[in-house]
Amino acid sequence: MPLERLKQARQKTVGTKQTLKAVEKGQVKVVYVAVDADPHLVDPLMKLCEEKAIPVISVDSMEALGLACNIKVGSASAAIVAE
């Protein structure tokens, strides 16, 4: 399951704003994006990841991504900063 790596990461970002900032700073190893997230929110992140050659992994739902990040709400995106 692709979310195991995210669950075990020492340092991660949760949410699109935090993830976007970390990608801009070059701190991110891999980004996770929920398939059911609003494209208006995640498209700028996806474009930046493409520009910086950062791998993007699609996740089935925002709920699944939120659970993997140990939060009780859904998350549109998350990223691994340090493993």
Automatic annotation (TrEMBL):
Query: What's the superkingdom here?
Result: Bacteria
Question: What's the short name of a Pfam family annotated to this entry?
Answer: Ribosomal_L7Ae
Could you tell me which residue ranges the Ribosomal protein eL8/eL30/eS12/Gadd45 domain spans? 5-81
Query: InterPro entries recorded for this chain?
Result: Ribosomal_eL30-like_sf, Ribosomal_eL8/eL30/eS12/Gad45
Q: Which UniProt keywords apply?
A: Ribonucleoprotein, Ribosomal protein
A single cellular component GO annotation: ribosome
Q: What is this protein called?
A: Ribosomal protein, l7ae family
